[in-house]
Structure formats: C-alpha cells, structure tokens
Amino acid sequence: MNIAIVGTGYVGLVSGACFAEMGINVTCVDIDSAKIEKLHQGIMPIYEPGLEDLVLRNVREGRLQFTTDLTSCLDDTDVVFSAVGTPPDEDGSADLRYVLEVARTVGRHMNKYLVLVTKSTVPVGTAPKVRMAVQEELDKRGVNIPFDIASNPEFLKEGAAIKDFMSPDRVVVGVESEKARELMERLYRPFTLNGYPILVMDVPSAEMTKYAANAMLATRISFMNDIANLCERVGANVDNVRKGMGSDPRIGKHFLYAGCGYGGSCFPKDVKALAHTGIENGYPMRVIEAVEAVNEAQKNIVFEKLLRAFDGDLRGKVIAMWGLSFKPETDDMREAPSLVVIEKLIEAGAVVRAYDPIAMEETHRRIGDKITYCKDMYEAVIDADALALLTEWKQFRMPSWSIIRKAMRNHVVVDGRNIYDPKELQDNGFTYSRIGLK
Ligand code: UDX
C-alpha cells in the first residue's frame, strides 16, 4: 500500500516512520523546503527518542521518502493523511487554514479514488468542510472522481511517540463508507495484529473522541492541582491523597500528579478549542472552562512561592532554573510553564540562570538572551538565591545537595514537580517548598 502524509511535525513524521517500519510505502510531504532538505540529509526537525534511527533505516530501505510536492505522489497513493498544524486562533478556536489547503491541493491534483484522512486534531464538524474543499476543486476541473474522507485522531505522547504509535491503546477511525473502512482497517492491520484494538466509528464521534480524551486528562491534572493547593492550606499531603484516591480502580492511579501546570502542544490548545466549540454550539463547557482557568493560575505557582520565600521582593535575586521544556524527554517549549515563570521573574527584577538537557536551544530561539543558559545543572546554581525545578528530567532527581549548598548564596528550593525528599533537603539546610504538601 502507498500512503502520503502531509505535515512532517511530531505526528506526521512519527506516523510516517512507523507506517514505513510496518512495510508500507510512505511519502512524507511538507511545504517547508528547509525541513525537507534537512530530512534528506538525515537531520531530524524535532528531538524524539528513537526517531532518527527509525527514519534513517526506513529511508535506507526505500520505504520512506520526503518531498515538498504532494502532487508528485498522488497518482500512486491510496490514502493521504493530513497531519498539518491547527494552531489556535485568537478566540481559541482551531485554525483550519492548513487542513483545508491540503484538501484543496488534493482536489486540484487527484486523478483516482483515494481516502483523505485528517490526523490533525480538528473540531467536530471539520470533515464536511474538508469534503467540500476537495469537491469544489474537482468541480472547478469539471471532473467527477470519487473519494472518501476519514478522521483518524492521534493519541501519541511526546517523548514516547514511537512506542505509543507502535503499541497504541487504541486506534480510532471515523469513516463514511465501507470502502474507506476496509482501506483503513487494512492499513492498520500490522498494528492491530499485535492485539491493539481499532475502533471504527462515525466521523464526528472520532473527531470528538480526541478532544474528550485530552480534556479528560487535562481535567485530572487541574483537579489535582486544585486539590493540592487546598491541601497546602489545610495541612494535608497531596501525595497521600493521590495514592488514596488512585487505588480506586474507577479513578485509577495515572495522571493524578499535581505540579506547576500542564503545557505542550495539545492540552492547552485542545482544551481551549473544546471550550470554543461549546460556546459556538450554545453549550458552554463549564468544567472545561474551569480546567483552563485553574491551569493558567497554576503556571504562576512556582513564581508565587519564590516571591513568598523572599518576602515579596525578588529584585536582584538570582534564580537557578532546572528544566525548561513542558515535560521531560522533549525539547518542546510550547506553552511550557517555565516561560510564564521566567517572564514573571524578570518582571520582578530577578535574574534567571537556567539549565535544560535538551531544550535550551529552543528556549533561546523563543526568548533570546533574557536568561543565562548554563552548561550544566551545577553551573546554574552558582551564587543563586533559589533553585526552581520546572521539569522533572531524570538527571535532576538525585543531585548532590552538599555541592549545591556550597555553590548557592541563599538556600531556597521550590520544587514544581514534587520530586525531592524534604528530609534530605532540610538536613542539608535548605528551605524547601513543593506543590500540595509540606
Ligand atoms: C498529550 C496526551 O497525553 C496525548 O494522548 C495527546 O495525543 C497529546 O497530548 P503530550 O502533550 O505529549 O500528550 O504530554 P503528556 O505526557 O500527556 O503531558 C502533558 C502535560 O501534563 C505535561 O506538561 C505534564 O507535565 C503534565 N502532567 C501530566 C501533569 O502535570 N500531571 C500529570 O499527572 C501528568
């Protein structure tokens, strides 16, 4: 089978490499010629564990190719995936410009039946717009070529993208015809052979599933952050509460960690878009709106704790920051809580010395020299008044507190991810605060 995947971002590139690994012939397309040129040279546009090896092997073995020109492969393609970006508009709704442009390009150049599958996260009701965009172009050409549209949302997590794609909890596919169902089932057969379920449904339900799943996960996080903040005020320990709650199988133990707020390319964007869909349809999503509001507030929490530690005056204070990316194992800085904390610290007159194992280049690209970038975690704490942990990279878990104590001039530690043992910090003479517990 031959497929094309338009958009070589996280989802597009990972999907392309994984389909190729299963023996499918894949063409990855992107309008960004610099990106495609780099991919031709074997340079990955993103950091994702295992991706480079997978891409290089499949290119070498001839199952994976890259091009800027979708039209060049359409005649041999059974399925075209659209995995382009859907950035939020100012009002929080998803911007469909790129998704519809792919549909128009397909309509302008297709010469035989194919299925156009939307893999990007798009609001419910996008599929008819995609269909219409293709049809309008076919009408302009005066040709009548049958095609199908389908929805196939992607649930992979950054940092574990390949494992998630290869061993999915489920594959969700929305279709409108028996022919499209057969093609999609065939395409995913190598994955479902391993026992992973494929759930074929109607298109609006598939579109909705993605938003509902992400919004539910984001809800768990905001809920726990709310509980954590209350725990602090009533003298409870959110870690104990989490374990106590999570032991109930109806609640489950995953995704209940309080912290300094969720970030990334999906949760913030999808929560906003779902809230917007609610308003558009005359049904404001009150839970979802609260989830977002709680998260916005939570992104300030590390800053507020630092402010409190220095009696409301951070002028001239040096803050060491460990971790910048929105979560470990990625260089993705989109909606990272660290950016909010940095902004607030600078506004308050503090100086930031940061270290992140992977995300410093990307941070520099975004905020330039507003902060000092340090060569390792110990350099970051030199002469610092406080250390703030924003991302729980493994290498930050067991630092040498005696070295850090000597290097710092004041001894405050604010832990945005609850990873340290308070006794150990106390024994080393630090004032330690974390989220939702003493
Ligand atoms: C998420 C979904 O998990 C994935 O299914 C979807 O396809 C895309 O969005 P991702 O954005 O890669 O994936 O990140 P994820 O690992 O889910 O973490 C999101 C954010 O939540 C991170 O900022 C993380 O630190 C935070 N988080 C996660 C918590 O604060 N507490 C938790 O218990 C779990």
How does this structure look, described?
This protein has 438 residues and is of the alpha/beta class. It folds into 3 domains: 200 residues, NAD(P)-binding Rossmann-like Domain (Rossmann fold), CATH 3.40.50; 89 residues, Orthogonal Bundle (N-(1-d-carboxylethyl)-l-norvaline Dehydrogenase, domain 2); 134 residues, NAD(P)-binding Rossmann-like Domain (Rossmann fold), CATH 3.40.50.720. It has 17 helices and 14 strands. It has a 6-stranded parallel sheet with strand order 3-2-1-4-5-6, sandwiched between helices. A 6-stranded parallel sheet has the order 11-10-9-12-13-14. A two-stranded parallel sheet has the order 7-8. The longest helix has 32 residues. The chain starts with a strand and ends with a strand. The relative contact order is 0.09. The structure holds uridine-5'-diphosphate-xylopyranose. It holds the Pfam family UDPG_MGDP_dh_N.
Structural class comes to alpha/beta
The outline comes out as elongated
Give the biggest sheet. 6 strands, parallel
Radius of gyration: 24 Å
| Tally of individual domains | 3
How much helicity do the residues have?
Answer: 40-55%
Strands, total number: 14
Active site: 266 (nucleophile)
Catalytic activity: UDP-alpha-D-glucose + 2 NAD(+) + H2O = UDP-alpha-D-glucuronate + 2 NADH + 3 H(+)
Binding site for substrate: 155-158, 210, 255-259, 263, 327
GO molecular function: NAD binding; UDP-glucose 6-dehydrogenase activity
